[in-house]
Structures are given as structure tokens and as C-alpha cells.
Request: fold
Amino acid sequence: DQQVKQNSPSLSVQEGRISILNCDYTNSMFDYFLWYKKYPAEGPTFLISISSIKDKNEDGRFTVFLNKSAKHLSLHIVPSQPGDSAVYFCAFLSEKLVFGKGTKLTVNP
Amino acid sequence: KAGVTQTPRYLIKTRGQQVTLSCSPISGHRSVSWYQQTPGQGLQFLFEYFSETQRNKGNFPGRFSGRQFSNSRSEMNVSTLELGDSALYLCASSASGYEQYFGPGTRLTVT
Reply:
């Protein structure tokens, strides 16, 4: 069963605009949520995280929102830059990290 | 601080053979996890080691095994390779158990 869903396999935005990446989960036992970014031929890079007791966490251009009632996680990137083009994975931690299948973000100059 | 290193970076093996992959975690990190990434399945958890003990295990057959040494370095072994084992194998280390830091991966091709 797929506990984590990233329903958009790809997203394309213009430089300077907002990128919104979404993730839905089914397991209420998840207590820590993370976003990773992955470039081709590299391992995923940790981006930002949020614990289940919060609903928002910011780090520079990156903001993660958690809606526990809807079991929904989102990542906002503002403003988007061409260097942000990568595959973004949401991940959820219970006893282990469970990853979504990723969303490929393309930021066009 | 040096990052997570994995060797080898690329590997080609034949069906039926076995393979051993190596991972050196970030200095001071005692937790090492292994993941398999394939285009169809995304990142799937294999197992986690902490202080030389397997702490968690994913849903993979017994052909996949691992171990961790006293210096926290870890190895992963796959026996009787199958074509479907072709994947990127990623190792991640963690100090807190929350944020995990990944190595560049080992690309295994089984022919």
C-alpha cells in the first residue's frame, strides 16, 4: 500500500514565481515530515523538515506547511530559481523514513 | 565535515552473482540506512543499522543483507542477483534519527 502520495509527477514554473509541491499521506503515526531535493546522479539532499506539533516551518525561500487534519504536506519555494530544478521527495518518519515517488520541478528562466 | 561516501559508484554484475556495497557515514553519525531507488518504485527502505545492530528492516527478500562495523561503516550484500535488482542503492547516515544525509549512491546494473 502506498502510504505517501505525490500526485504530480512533474511541475513547471517560471523563474521568480512560486512553486508549490504537494504530498498526501495515510498513516497518522507519522510524527516528522521532511523534504528532500535530488539532482541526477546525486543522492537526495535534505531540504527542510517539520514536526507533527507544528503547522509551518520556514527556511529562507522554502516553507513547509503541514495540515494534519487533511493529512497533507506542502512545500512552497518563493521565488523559484532555475537552480531549484530537481526532483523533490516528501518523506515521513515513523520507525523509518517513507518516501513519496517524487515530483520533478522545472524552473524556466 | 566530509559527507557520506559510497563505493563503488557503478557496478555491473551478472544474474546469479553476489555483490557487496560499502558506505562510510558522516563522522559521528551512528545510524546508517540503506535505500533502493528504481524508476517505478521510488525510494524504498531496505534496513537501518545503529551501533552495529539492525534496528529496522523493510520488505525485501532475505537475499538483501547488511552489517555495520564498530566504526559505523556499513556494507550491504545482495546474493543471487536478479535483473530486477538493477537500481541505485543509496546509503544515508543520521545523528538524530530525524534528518538523514545521503551519499551519492551506487548504480548497480544486473545483466
